[in-house]
Write a structure and sequence with these properties.
Strand order of the largest sheet of chain A: 6-7-8-3-9-10
Shape of chain C: globular
Oligomer: heteropentamer
Shape of chain A: globular
Number of helices of chain C: 10
Subcellular location (chain B): Cell envelope; Cell membrane; Membrane
Mean pLDDT of chain C: 82
CATH architecture of the largest domain in chain A: 3-Layer(aba) Sandwich
Membrane topology (chain B): Multi-pass membrane protein
Family (chain B): Belongs to the binding-protein-dependent transport system permease family.
Radius of gyration of chain A: 19 Å
Order of helices and strands of chain C: EHEHEHEEEEEHEHEHHEEEHHEH
Structural class of chain A: alpha/beta
Number of strands of chain C: 14
Mean pLDDT of chain A: 83
Keywords (chain B): Membrane, Transmembrane, Transmembrane helix, Transport
CATH topology of the largest domain in chain A: Rossmann fold
Largest sheet of chain C: 7 strands, mixed
Organism (chain B): Paenibacillus glacialis
Chains: A alpha/beta, B mainly alpha, C alpha/beta, D mainly alpha
Order of helices and strands of chain A: EEEHEEHEHHHHEHEHEEH
Strand content of chain C: 15-25%
Low-confidence stretches of chain C: 1-27
Largest sheet of chain A: 6 strands, mixed
Structural class of chain C: alpha/beta
Number of domains of chain A: 2
Helix content of chain A: 25-40%
Radius of gyration of chain C: 20 Å
Largest interface: B-D, 79 and 73 residues
Bound molecules: adenosine-5'-triphosphate, magnesium ion
Helix content of chain C: 25-40%
Distance between the termini of chain A: 44 Å
CATH class of the largest domain in chain A: Alpha Beta
Distance between the termini of chain C: 9 Å
Low-confidence stretches of chain A: 246-264
């Protein structure tokens, strides 16, 4: 269970990232966060595993406050939270496999991992994770020789290999083709269902959100402006999130008149 | 209009920033002129022509006989010793400076004071004159190449660790975040996210330091710590330009060859 | 006040007079017995040719003493004194001032032998074939300079060597002071590193006089052949003792004798003599007498470098 | 695991059975690994051979350590009465270092740009410049000093020249190496908008390389402050001469004073430069 | 007009990026390139303005061969090709405005741009471009302080400010919310129509492709496997591109039964 109580975050340059957020996310939920670019979606995810410190408020993971944890306790909380980054955050100069294996360091003593040796089982877990995102054949290639989508998939594989109980995914499919997008989202959904893993995903496409989420949270300028089930997320509600009516053509429907497009 | 307002206020900040840039440039210029005025330029000297000619003549006719002498202590063997001292000295400092580098890197610690202390320590090590470091080690292990290795090794910690720590400060924080998010310990984060990023630069700086160390042989020569430095100083003191010429040629060749090899290495690593 | 012990190789140290230093209180039989010998050579400043060579001497000494010998060279005497005092070096070829510092300040070394070089002809500046154990410093001016006496130097620009240099500062400055010219206030001092560079500065007119060893002009003559015609010696100082061969202060007496004998034997053998001459420009060794170094102490004190 | 097979079917990649795939890729990993081990072994052998060659004696270092303490103890307390004597030479040293560093840094900029492979791909231009840089860096400062004294006579000017060449060589080399390591993305973007070489440099390279350049500049400046030994050789006075004199007279307490003053100067320069840098960038 | 004749590209590590591509793109076309991740879409775009050299074949821009051009000729060809990068390629350490202005250097003499001074008109063009992508208020902020989508928009603004006759866009909307996505695509479409600017866009979403493109090109493993109008891009054709039938749910329709989704 993830609980956020009155969480606010202001960046050093004065930008408000989050404003007084209160949320309760139950174990096993599949939450999709939507909102405009710059609404604070990434900031929210990064606060949950405390990659960025919040300015005020408290965040509890399974009853333990991550905002006040430190040392090995903080590490063990984090080990149970897998994260997929918007900008991939791969270690460019090493192989894909090493990148994925690095997701498993939390399970081993520092000494053992210092020499970069992982048990055979870990290597298998890593290769399986790569297989899930369809790039096992790139396992021994350096990460900087991959295409954008391939890099994103490596970052997903790393989070999968971590075998966490919570997964935070920051636009995990932004650079993926529709096929891989579906595969990845299906995979997230499958582990969410089968293993009851709490999943929080930032997504840009409302349709995709409606397909997969059990709950949708809408952010706008750092504030929660919508929080409800998929069925509650009507077009009117979405209009609030995006600050104006979402037109039919913004739902990425395939049948539409091109001349009717708005914003020009 | 709101937009116009916004524009004018931001162009004001730009103008302010430009003003500040000019002020700083002016400040640097003033300091530069102040120091140039202190230089006391006296122009070419009356003896400069004869002397330069005789130096040039010496360089044109290097003392080839010195290159190889059957009984030893010739150019080749002194260069070899210099090379060996540099290799070991670089090795010592490259190893020793790693903990210092992490200590001094601002992004390796949440506190401000801790890296500050590291930086201060490095400054202290750096201002410690090479001469004194050499004397210290000569007192410990006696004069000779080993003292030279230790002096080079310890003296260069200050610089190498400074360059290393700046490299660490310049890395992409993304991968580190990824590791932290996996619940990695600090050492694990360093091992998997920092080291791979800094290794090329580390090696590059170590190789660069290696080159400087070869050059530092002259300084070590000052304290009799072995290598080509002592013969060079002696030759300079008695104005034996032919000897100086051949020694210089030897050093240049040595550095060019090591530079060639090291740039090869660098390219393979990056 | 330092009436240090006189160590004389030819007739072992029974003749020591007032023994004030701690180290010399030791009975002759005890003390350090070397199993191998660490020798370091620091050239004194009156050398016109130098070789940074060690192997030949290692061999010569090793043959004489039957223990391994390791020789090193250093252009700087600070390290050798420190190494002697921390017992890292057993024998040092020390310039006079370095010997005095090592002996008086650090109790690190005792005098064994003094080196001999060929004397220098005051008129021509060329070497004579007389073996002497001292050299002189001189103050040089340009030939056409209107400086005729030491007192004329008042207000002039003088190029010194380091303040620790016997020939380049201590002796000439002390004699200047005796002549009534304060070397610190009455003249404009410029420190120049290297006797050759100093003479070049004189030739270029950057300074009015320079202090040098006799006769440093031979070094410059390689580049400026007419340096002797262009310059004039204004003043010769009192003799400065030549380089010493000193041993660490805890050296066993028997070994002191042995080492002294070995050096003398080397110079008596023609081949050995040639080697020592080529490398160090030494042409012989005589028993050292600490009393010879009284002027060094006195002059140092005169220029405010009192050795405690 | 129905879903897994489903996934595998859907991949456009020809389906190799998982086990054979594993073997192949793992084999690839092994050759890399053995190569790495071989490199390390070679490295260790070199270090060991070198250590034997020059007779490294760690034991001697261990027993000799207390001797170092003796000397360090002599540095305290520092001789504060020496401070007034060293002010002027310190100032002189700073002047020489400022002039030498700045005059060396200016030609270092084009030299670095012409040597960097990713900015000047033309080998015929970069190779001669790199060779020149090598030469400049190789010549020991002592020799530079000797030559410049011969030509310009003793004095600070010759000292400044010696520092200038050294600074030029160092800054140019370090800068071109960090130029070669910059992110190629912005360069691509500039290439794509049709910028010419200089425009690419101004917009794509300089913003990225400026922090490193300034850092090398300061680093060199600091070296130059301490390279005063050379200045001593050219009669430029400077703090190095006094340091040598203090050591010659075994006045380690004075040496300590000099070190502390140098430290203070270096720290002040460090502090002001970082605050300037923060304002500039 | 852009002509590709037998263009192939093999990377130094042996990966085949493009294989024998022949294309003719007329002035004013709006081409969308689709294909799986790693199909070679980015490689194709980068070959057109010769950011990466092809291994063989020839590419002509308005009758001039860019593969053999060099010096100022190559630069003037490139000035007329705006590019939006998948990885943004912003100059992180300078302001957003400077980043956008850098798109205009091709128009000015070296000397003038050396000191970073641009005519007032250029600044206006840049600010207008920023306004189009809705981040004019970030003009004086350093580029590294922006969210992912904001960075992408800066990169779009730079290409708009370049006022080129050809625009190459490599997944220009990958990190954008649906609203901004529409705005950006509309903007691309508008300048394509009004100014007759040839536009080539890599896209992952077929629906978006169908909405905007006048022509769709499908890539698969470096080969052109489809080339035709929007109407010709039937589901069967797309199946070829993606190597298997594109299911209804991969079209990102909004009305669908979640249980019916394939892969779980
Ligand atoms: N620098 C490189 N070195 C080696 N291989 C590369 C390099 N860049 C790309 N590749 C490979 O070339 C193929 C095509 O890459 P490209 O970037 O064109 O794909 P893409 O279609 O743009 O994919 P995405 O949608 O994921 O961005 C991929 O298999 C990729 O791994
Ligand atoms: N390091 C930072 N310093 C200052 N401001 C920041 C920083 N990171 C983000 N911001 C600002 O905080 C706000 C929220 O950013 P965040 O990255 O959370 O947006 P987002 O919802 O993830 O957007 P996107 O969909 O574009 O990724 C933005 O206005 C952004 O400019
Ligand atoms: Mg984001
Ligand atoms: Mg791509």
């Amino acid at each position: 269970m993830i609980e956020l109580r009155q969480v606010s975050k202001t960046f050093p340059n004065g930008t408000v990232g989050l404003k007084d957020i209160n949320l309760n996310i139950q174990t096993g939920e599949f939450v999709v966060i939507v909102g405009l670019s710059g609404a604070g979606k990434s900031t929210l995810l990064r606060s949950i595993n405390r990659l960025s410190d919040v300015t005020s408020g408290d965040i509890q993971i399974d009853g333990q406050s991550i905002t006040s944890a430190s040392g090995s306790k903080l590490r063990s909380i984090r080990r149970n939270i897998g994260m997929i980054f918007q900008s991939f955050n791969l270690i460019k100069r090493t192989t894909v496999l090493n990148n994925v294996l690095s997701g498993r360091v939390g399970y081993h003593s520092t000494l053992r991992t210092l020499f970069g040796s992982f048990p055979k089982r870990d290597v298998e877990i890593a290769l399986t994770a790569l297989e899930r995102v369809n790039i096992r054949e790139k396992a021994y290639i350096r990460a900087d020789q991959l295409s954008g989508g391939q890099q994103q998939r490596v970052s997903i594989a790393r989070a999968l290999a971590q075998e966490a109980t919570i997964i935070l995914a920051d636009e995990p499919v932004a650079s993926l083709d529709p096929l891989t997008t579906r595969q990845v989202m299906d995979d997230l959904q499958r582990i969410n269902r089968e293993l009851n893993i709490t999943t929080i995903v930032n997504l840009h496409f409302i349709d995709l959100a409606r397909d997969y989420a059990t709950r949708i949270i809408g952010l706008r300028a750092g504030e929660v402006v919508f929080d409800g089930s998929v069925h509650e997320a009507t077009d009117e509600k979405l209009a609030e999130i995006y600050g104006r009516p979402v037109k039919a053509d913004e739902l990425l429907d395939s049948s539409r008149d091109m001349q009717g497009v708005g914003v020009v | 209009m709101n937009n116009n307002n916004h524009l004018s206020s931001s162009s004001l900040t730009i103008r302010l920033r430009n003003l500040r840039k000019w002020m700083i440039a002016l400040f640097i210029l003033v300091i530069f002129i102040w120091s140039m005025l202190g230089l006391d330029y006296q122009g070419f000297q009356s003896t400069s022509k004869v002397v330069s000619l005789s130096i040039l003549k010496g360089f044109m006719h290097p003392d080839w006989a010195y290159v190889y002498l059957p009984e030893g202590e010739d150019l080749l063997r002194e260069l070899l010793e210099t090379l060996v001292i540099s290799i070991l000295g670089t090795f010592v400092s490259a190893i020793l400076c790693i903990p210092f580098a992490f200590w001094a890197a601002a992004n390796m610690s949440r506190l401000r004071l801790f890296p500050g202390m590291g930086k201060f320590t490095l400054s202290v090590i750096r201002v410690f004159p090479e001469m004194i470091v050499a004397i210290l080690f000569i007192k410990a292990v006696g004069p000779g190449s080993f003292a030279g290795v230790l002096a080079l090794g310890v003296h260069s910690i200050g610089m190498l660790a400074k360059l290393f720590s700046e490299t660490i400060e310049g890395i992409d924080p993304g991968p580190q975040e990824a590791l932290i998010a996996c619940g990695a310990t600090r050492l694990q984060t360093i091992r998997f996210a920092v080291i791979p990023q800094v290794i090329p630069q580390f090696l590059s700086y170590s190789l660069y330091r290696f080159e400087i160390n070869i050059r530092s042989a002259t300084t070590l020569g000052l304290v009799g710590a072995g290598g080509i430095g002592t013969p060079l100083i002696f030759a300079l003191q008695v104005r034996n330009w032919n000897r100086v010429g051949v020694i210089l040629l030897g050093i240049v060749l040595l550095v060019v060859v090591t530079d060639f090899i090291s740039s090869r290495l660098r390219r393979r690593i990056i | 006040g330092n009436n240090a012990k006189t160590t004389n190789a030819a007739e072992p140290a029974k003749g020591s007079t007032t023994q004030t230093t701690e180290t010399s209180a030791k009975p002759a039989e005890t003390g350090y017995i070397p199993k191998e010998l660490e020798v370091q050579f620091v050239p004194s400043q009156n050398a016109e040719t130098l070789e940074a060579k060690t192997k030949p001497l290692e061999k010569l000494l090793g043959d004489q003493l039957n223990i391994p010998v390791h020789v090193s060279v250093s252009p700087d005497y600070n390290t050798i004194v420190e190494a002697l005092s921390s017992k890292q070096v057993d024998i040092g070829f020390l310039p006079p001032s370095a010997y005095v510092l090592a002996h008086d300040l650090r109790n690190a070394a005792d005098l064994l032998l003094q080196a001999q070089r060929f004397g220098v002809n005051d008129e021509t500046g060329q070497p004579t074939d007389e073996k002497v154990n001292f050299y002189k410093a001189m103050i040089l001016v340009k030939k056409d300079s209107d400086i005729k006496t030491l007192t004329d130097l008042k207000g002039k620009k003088i190029g010194w060597q380091d303040v620790t240099s016997s020939a380049g500062y201590v002796f000439p400055a002390a004699e200047l002071k005796k002549a009534g010219v304060d070397p610190e206030t009455d003249v404009q001092g410029v420190t120049i590193k290297g006797h050759d560079a100093a003479i070049m500065a004189l030739l270029n007119g950057q300074v009015d006089a320079v202090a040098n060893f006799q006769d440093a002009r031979n070094v410059v003559a390689k580049d400026v052949p007419d340096v002797f015609e262009q310059t004039r010696v204004l003043h010769f100082t009192a003799p400065i003792p030549n380089d010493t061969i000193s041993v660490r202060s805890d050296m066993n007496q028997e070994w002191r004798d042995k080492i002294a004998q070995a050096f003398i034997a080397i110079t008596e053998d023609p081949e050995g003599a040639q080697i020592v001459k080529d490398i160090y420009t030494h042409v012989g060794y005589v028993a050292g007498d600490d009393a010879n170094f009284a002027p060094v102490r006195e002059y140092a004190e005169a220029v405010g470098q009192k050795i405690k | 695991m129905k879903s897994d097979t489903n996934l595998a079917d859907s991949t456009p990649i020809p389906s190799i059975s998982p086990s054979s795939n594993y073997l192949i890729t793992n084999g690839l990993g092994n050759t890399k690994r053995s190569k790495r081990i071989a490199t390390w072994m070679l490295f260790i052998v070199i270090i060991v051979v070198c250590s034997i060659y020059i007779d490294v004696t760690p034991y001697q270092l261990f027993v000799g350590l207390p001797e170092m303490g003796v000397l360090l103890k002599e540095m305290f307390p520092p001789d504060w009465s020496y401070l007034p004597t060293i002010w002027a030479p310190m100032l002189q040293t700073i002047k020489i270092a400022v002039a030498g560093t700045i005059l060396g840094a200016i030609p270092a900029i084009p030299a670095a740009l012409f040597s960097a492979n990713n900015i000047t791909p033309n080998k015929w231009l970069s190779l001669p410049i790199r060779t020149l840089l090598n030469l400049v860096r190789t010549v020991p400062d002592l020799l530079f000093a000797a030559i410049f004294v011969a030509v310009f006579g003793i004095g600070p000017f010759a000292g400044m020249l010696a520092l200038l060449f050294f600074s030029f060589g160092i800054i140019a080399k370090l800068t071109y190496e960090s130029l070669e390591a910059i992110d190629p993305g912005p360069l691509e973007a500039m290439t794509a908008v049709g910028a010419n070489r200089i425009q690419i440099i101004v917009f794509g390279v300089i913003p990225q390389a400026l922090p490193a350049f300034i850092s090398y500049l300061l680093y060199t400046f600091e070296i130059n402050i301490r390279a005063a030994t050379v200045l001593g050789f050219v009669g430029a006075g400077g703090i190095g001469l006094l340091l040598n004199q203090s050591l010659g007279l075994f006045r380690y307490d004075r040496a300590a004073t000099i070190i502390i003053l140098t430290l203070a100067v270096v720290l002040i320069i460090d502090y002001t430069s970082t605050s300037i840098r923060r304002k500039l960038l």
